[in-house]
Structures are given as C-alpha cells and as structure tokens.
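Is it possible to get an amino acid sequence alongside its tokenized fold?
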Amino acid sequence: MESKIQRRQTERLQIRVTPATKERLLAICTATGKSQAELIRQWADGRKVVSKSDAKVLAELRRQGGLIKSVLIDLRKRECLTDQLHDLLEDALHAIGQATEQIIQGEDHDFTPD
C-alpha cells in the first residue's frame, strides 16, 4: 500500500480545451457535485463518475431494499409469512435490485468521457 506521502497530489496539469468542451465539463461538474480536478482524477483512475442525484437515489434504493429484507426476515422468524406476502416482498426486492442496476449501468447516468 502506498504511503500518504506517495499519494500526495504534487503534480499539476494545464490543459487547453474548446469552449464547448469546457461547458460540458462544467455541466458534468455541476451534475456530479465534483470539482474539475476531482472529475478528471476519477476519470483518469478509471472510476465511474456518478451524479449527486443518482448517488442519492442509489442510497435510498439500497436503504429501502434493506428495510424490506428486514421485514421479510422478521416475518419468517415469526412464522407469519404467507406465500403471497413472501412473493410480494421478493418481487419488491427484485424490482429495487433492477432499478439499482439500471442506474449503475445506464448510459444516461454515466458521465465517463468516451
């Protein structure tokens, strides 16, 4: 593992871009809540850049999925889970999982440059 000194950001880049590229970069920064420098570092490191709204939606979907899973487990323990209720809760968990994957995989949500 690198030491803190080795990871320190000491190098500086100066780049020229077209006005259109600058506008797009600023729009992405606004959408993601990241600085230009952080956005470029994430892109260079191959990390996916997620918008602030997508990050909030993903966090809420995961929270809701966790709550549904807790209810499902609790009802199983109490032995009061009907087949119909089990199927409904499983369907809800599956739908949340699909929605999460669509946000993560969706091109509309990917700010990574081509």
